[in-house]
Amino acid sequence: MNIITPTADGSNTLYNETIGEHYHSKHGALQESKHVFIEAGLKFASAGKSEIAVLEVGFGTGLNFILSNEFAASQHIKLAYTSIEAFPLSLELINQTGYDAYVPVGIWSDFTSKYEESLNSVQTLSPFCQLEIPHTTLAQFTTNKTFDVIYYDAFSVQHQPEMWSDEIIAHACSFLKPRGTFVTYAITGKLKRAVKACGFSIEKLPGAPGKREMLRALKMQEQTEDFQILNP
């Protein structure tokens, strides 16, 4: 069961009783999403571009998506957004988050009107935005598409360790274009080694409220999914 709970910046998140963790930081759901995924991720990766493809690991409440849509629209950047979600939330629950207060009404209504259809196929929300939410796990996800930026927003390693294994990080990184950006709220020695083994340069950035640091990494070369990471 998911329970709506307030966070320190006044925005809501959900507490997942099965996993035992919140979907966003209890120090501020909105602040974390903007800091990690918009400012450090999308804004950085989209500089100088007229279109951008995002792969998100963990669609959850859709907060990262609606903020990304708002940013891209404001910059006249075409956004192709793919977000993997093994356990999609109901539209009813998404409508209870209060996130409609953080984006223009058109962005919210376009999202909610196409959310359920986007679980099955690519949906055009506007001339500048396409959304698809493959209903699958990251381990089972395959696509011929490549992406400019990955938002890695899985639950923490303490509660979902399988999402932070060397193999699954390499699998995610294989979908990035050369010079693509990998960004996540987390940073550990093991994660840094895993991403470096995939041919990335590592950058430590100040974290969102409640976290000292976060990780951004830039893909420097092509990487086949042969899991060279197992033999660093």
Care to describe what's here?
This protein is α/β, with parallel strands linked by helices. Helix content is 28%, strand content 27%. It contains six helices and eleven strands. It has helices at residues 29-45, 63-74, 91-94, 105-118, 166-173, 189-197, and strands at 2-6, 12-16, 21-22, 51-57, 78-84, 123-126, 129-132, 147-152, 176-184, 200-206, 213-219. Strands 6-7-5-4-8-9-11-10 form an eight-stranded mixed sheet, sandwiched between helices. It has a three-stranded antiparallel sheet with strand order 1-2-3, with no helix packed on it. α1 packs across α2 (63-74) and α5 packs across α6 (189-197). The radius of gyration is 16 Å and the shape is globular.
Strand and helix layout:
Layout: E1 2-6, E2 12-16, E3 21-22, H1 29-45, E4 51-57, H2 63-74, E5 78-84, H3 91-94, H4 105-118, E6 123-126, E7 129-132, E8 147-152, H5 166-173, E9 176-184, H6 189-197, E10 200-206, E11 213-219
Parallel strand pairs: 4-5, 4-8, 5-7, 8-9
Antiparallel strand pairs: 1-2, 2-3, 6-7, 9-11, 10-11
Helix pairs in contact: 1-2, 5-6
Which regions contain 5 or more consecutive residues with pLDDT less than 50? Answer: 223-232
Q: Tell me the major beta sheet.
A: 8 strands, mixed
Please give the number of β-strands.
Answer: 11
SSE string, helices as H and strands as E: EEEHEHEHHEEEHEHEE
Structural class: alpha/beta
Spatial separation of the terminal alpha carbons: 40 Å
Helix content: 25-40%
Global Rg = 16 Å
Question: Averaged pLDDT, please?
Answer: 94
Strand percent estimate: 25-35%
Tally of individual helices:
6
Widest beta sheet: strand line-up: 6-7-5-4-8-9-11-10
Outline: globular
